[in-house]
Description:
The chain has 245 residues and is mainly α. Helix content is 76%, strand content 0%. α1 (3-18) crosses α6, α7 (130-151) packs parallel to α13 (216-238) and α12 packs antiparallel against α13 (216-238). The longest helix has 33 residues, at 46-78.
Amino acid sequence: MSLRITLITAGRILRQLLNDRRTVVMILAVPALIISLISAIMDAAPAVFDQVGLILLAAFPFMLMFMITSITLLRERTGGTLERLMTTPTAKMDLVGGYALAFGVCASLQTAIAATVAYLWLDLDTVGSAWTVGLIAIVTSLFGMALGLFVSAFASTEFQAIQFMPVLIVPQLFLCGLIWPREQMAGWLQGVSDALPLTYAVKALQEVQVSSDLTAAMWGDLGIVAGAVVVATVLGAATLRRRTG
């Protein structure tokens, strides 16, 4: 793996994203706008917004990074870009590292903007620090990026890539505790929820909600999400041969 090639790949991806203004707006503005809308809806119940808004700081970047990464990678696969790159000295991990770095920058900016809006303008209140919330949200959005990398190998059109959302994204949003408390779900649904990485991101955020300390439970939950990022990234890297061989 070459750091130079990785940085060149990341720079190329970032330039492509900057040239697509709609994508830039989606990455940077949409999460903050949606959280603002939720805040307005829950204006009469600020305590509820503190719980829901905190989870949304990770849930929306997770969903958006999945969409953007899967579509971007699909374009690279079907457009022949990956095929050309794989004929050069560029290793698969150079490509994966470049994509991860580029989208990691996007995820960080996205999270920073959404968190700034939530804390400064929407009066989001947590016992733990905002930077801890930001860290959890960034790791969670990287999980969405890694899933998008993996899924892009199994779609031939952008519409097909989006069709994976009801399979991989929506169940995690429904079962992570955002819509309904996990402890009040049916037993078998709690079992399914325990197997979904987004659940542990929510648990980590809930620790920040009630504790000013960086608890072992929070680090453990965040570690599970980070492990899921690694697994999904490795699986995504393994699929690069599918259309570049």
